[in-house]
């Protein structure tokens, strides 16, 4: 049975009052489009959310780091990771460059990155998509992992063009909604959480750009695409933890004045409309696609 078939079946057959309550609550009392909660500059500023992000988010695949280096065609001396957050992507790049600089607008996230990831070859600093704190033509690689959908793209591309050396590489990557090959029902639930429950609490740009995997953006240089599936073993609670690290979930909880445990309970009850008890107790393979597009500046 396909994911779409399961979704349609659940919509037709669900009669539970709690599910109806959640749906009416989302439609009649969802976050206004102009709310400051949807401002990308204030996402991931909370300490607890940043800690969950660092602990539960997917790590950038080393295979894609290798592809970036292959495209570069020379040893990387300086690699800048823009929108690095707590360093979950930056840590994967350590063995691929002599020095790594991670920059982010969130001081809270950077505190975690400095605590958990920084070393003699890896440093972190305040900086944004239009303010990379490097000299002209000084950087070999610029990456933005699960971040570019919050950027002002024209300003970012202009800034990247300024700091990249001739022959340097820009790579953008985003993570698609997790799936569970071991349970199509759970995959359908995750799709519903992403597409319906949390969408009003997430900036539109995240959906608009990730759905196209950044491949519609006006890159100035020739591009190369690479999709890698990151798969690992997990259980039902691991999936809930992943969802709890999403900014849309955090905004849902803030807007509806829910504690973390209450928000997690909401997620569990929604997912329960799609899955069986066996889905909640069985081990699963959790799969997240890292969709990357890389672009090399002419020499």
Detailed description of the structure:
The structure is a single chain. It contains 12 helices and 7 strands. It is of the alpha/beta class and 299 residues long. The chain has a 7-stranded mixed sheet. β2, α5 (107-116) and β3 form a beta-alpha-beta unit. It is globular.
Low-confidence stretches: 1-28
State the distance separating the first and last CA atoms. 51 Å
Q: Helix tally?
A: 12
Q: Structural class, from helix and strand content?
A: alpha/beta
What level of helicity do the residues show?
40-55%
Largest sheet: 7 strands, mixed
User: Mean pLDDT, as a whole number?
Assistant: 87
The strand count comes to 7
Order of helices and strands: HHHHEEHEEHEHHEHHHHE
Strand proportion: 15-25%
What is the 3D shape? globular
Task: Kindly report the spatial arrangement of strands forming the biggest sheet.
Answer: 3-2-1-4-5-7-6
Report Rg.
Answer: 20 Å
Give a summary of the structure in a few sentences.
With 299 residues, this protein is an alpha/beta fold. The protein has 12 helices and 7 strands. It has a 7-stranded mixed beta sheet with strand order 3-2-1-4-5-7-6.
């Amino acid at each position: 049975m396909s994911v779409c078939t399961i979704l349609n079946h659940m919509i037709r057959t669900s009669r539970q009052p709690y599910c109806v309550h959640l749906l009416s609550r989302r439609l009649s009392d969802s976050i206004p489009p102009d709310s400051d909660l949807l401002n990308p500059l204030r996402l991931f500023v909370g300490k607890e959310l940043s800690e969950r992000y660092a602990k539960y988010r997917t790590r950038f695949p080393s295979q894609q780091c290798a592809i970036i280096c292959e495209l570069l065609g020379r040893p990387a001396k300086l690699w800048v990771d823009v929108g690095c957050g707590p360093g979950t992507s930056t840590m994967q790049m350590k063995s691929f460059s002599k020095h790594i600089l991670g920059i982010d607008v969130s001081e809270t996230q950077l505190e975690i990155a400095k605590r958990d990831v920084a070393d003699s070859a890896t440093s972190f600093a305040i900086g944004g998509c239009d303010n990379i704190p490097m000299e002209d033509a000084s950087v070999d690689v610029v990456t933005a992992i699960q971040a570019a959908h919050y950027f002002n793209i024209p300003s970012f591309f202009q800034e990247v063009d300024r700091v990249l050396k001739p022959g340097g590489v820009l790579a953008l990557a985003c993570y698609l909604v997790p799936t569970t090959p071991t349970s199509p029902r759970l995959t359908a639930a995750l799709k519903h959480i992403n597409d319906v429950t949390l969408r009003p609490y997430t900036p539109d740009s995240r959906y608009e750009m990730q759905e196209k995997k950044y491949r519609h953006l006006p890159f100035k240089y020739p591009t190369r695409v690479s999709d890698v599936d990151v798969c690992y073993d997990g259980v039902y609670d691991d999936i809930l933890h992943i969802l709890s690290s999403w900014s849309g979930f955090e905004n849902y909880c803030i807007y509806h004045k829910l504690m973390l445990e209450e928000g997690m309970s909401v997620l569990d009850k929604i997912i329960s409309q799609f899955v069986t008890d066996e889905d909640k107790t069985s081990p699963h393979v959790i799969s997240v696609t890292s969709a990357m597009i890389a672009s090399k500046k002419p020499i």
